[in-house]
Amino acid sequence: MASNRGAWHTRPSKLRIRKFSPFQLAVFITFVFGISIFIFFLCTGDVLLDADQDLSLPEDAPQLENEETPDKLWGPPFSHGLHQCVKPTNKYKAAEGWDHYLTVRSNGGLNQMRTGISDMVAVARIMNATLVIPQLDRRSFWQDSSTFSDIFDEAHFIKSLERDIRVVKELPKDLDSVPRARKHFTSWASMGYYEEMKLLWKDFQVVHVAKSDSRLANNDLPLDIQRLRCRALYHALRFAPPIEDLGKRLVERLRSRGGRYIALHLRYEKDMLSFTGCTYGLTDAESEELRIMREKTSHWKLKKINSTEQRIGGSCPLIPKEVGIFLRALGYPSSTLIYIAAGEIYGGDDRLLELRARFPNLVFKETIATREELEAFSDHASQSAALDYIISIESDVFIPSHSGNMARAVEGHRRFLGHRKTITPDRQGGPRKRGVSPPGVKGRARFRSEESFYENPYPECICNREKDSY
């Protein structure tokens, strides 16, 4: 046995490993690689396609439905039990009969005015002032002659806020001729700023606010002031009964047609494209028309805009074609009912051809309401926008093609109502705390770059404690 073990151990020493020259080694590797490539092409040749072949599905190809469609596409995100909470704290005192008055001119479109008015409610509270029903902007691009009571339920507004501030329909007659302090309050101002503004009452009984939008900071305000802003926007600023009634009827008609629907806020109006300088997909003549419009609009400060840089920087809306591609990529079937919440689309129906080819069930106010129902709202852009707002709030899914005043307001309201599904390219409306400014941003730019309070009122107006509910 011993000799056998010894023989076994000595055999390896007799083997000789043949050495290959560099040339022989290279030939061997090339041969093996060639055989591998041949086998690969032989096995996969039946599925290889010509590089120039069109890979898109034919128009009449059947659309595959995802088995998870109801939950994945239509279901709201998980809200972790969070709900609206706007009840004042125990330290909050009821309004008093102050003899100082704030008069306000609310500037901008519908949602810019709505959030601005909510800011002014909070400012009136901080400054111990009586708020006179605001005057609405009649000089904006829309040139809407609507008054406050044409758009909002004035009596409800006054009644809802009676514990918070005193609101009157008009300035007392004996104060019509008294000198007024005319103020352009600083944008994104803090609580301390308005505490200092109380000094105005030493010399004036009336302060006129020339602009209402973005007058309050998004963050670092007392909890009761933040919740007051939510009570003002989501409870007090109810639309006038004719608008509310028609809005609800239109929602019911949409439900009767498909059960579920998407509200698509398609930002592709002429003024918006001109203001942002976004001309991607437009003809040279259309681009020039927008440039001329921008030059002639005196209150638009930026005149020369590089459209390519705007688009690369994410400052332009998705064009209608891209919206269609986006929705199909998410998995929505071509049969999806889509309500277009928007003003007049620049370029008209031709601009919607490729979107409609993917989603034939596109509807507008004009296709679900009668001419008689809409007649009262003709030439009143803000009232018409209010209908879009109601339909967007009540939709199963809300999708804005660009971030703007309406997109932010609707997203915030849907969060407040229970985190209803809102889809933007990077999120779907789930709970998250309001974003602060990016690192390194300093000065007043820090306040401008913060996420809007009205876009995401969490955590002040959304919580998980029942005792804070309204």
Brief characterization of the structure:
By secondary structure, this protein is an alpha/beta fold. The chain has helices at 2-10, 22-44, 69-74, 110-126, 148-151, 154-160, 191-197, 223-236, 241-258, 270-276, 284-296, 307-312, 320-330, 353-358, 365-368, 371-375, 381-394, 405-416, 444-448, and strands at 83-84, 101-106, 130-132, 135-136, 167-168, 180-183, 206-209, 262-265, 338-340, 362-363, 397-400, 462-463. Pathway: Glycan metabolism.
Topology (elements, then pairings):
Blueprint: H1 2-10, H2 22-44, H3 69-74, E1 83-84, E2 101-106, H4 110-126, E3 130-132, E4 135-136, H5 148-151, H6 154-160, E5 167-168, E6 180-183, H7 191-197, E7 206-209, H8 223-236, H9 241-258, E8 262-265, H10 270-276, H11 284-296, H12 307-312, H13 320-330, E9 338-340, H14 353-358, E10 362-363, H15 365-368, H16 371-375, H17 381-394, E11 397-400, H18 405-416, H19 444-448, E12 462-463
Parallel strand pairs: 2-3, 2-4, 2-7, 3-5, 6-7, 8-9, 8-11, 9-10
Antiparallel strand pairs: 1-12
Description:
It contains 19 helices and 12 strands. With 470 residues, the chain is of the alpha/beta class. The chain has 2 domains: 101-235, Rossmann fold; 241-467. The strands form 3 sheets. Strands 2, 3, 4, 5, 6 and 7 form a 6-stranded parallel β-sheet that branches. The protein has a 4-stranded parallel β-sheet with strand order 10-9-8-11. It has a two-stranded antiparallel sheet with strand order 1-12. The longest helix has 23 residues, at 22-44. The protein is globular. The N and C termini lie far apart (94 Å). Residues 1-20 and 25-68 have low confidence and may be disordered.
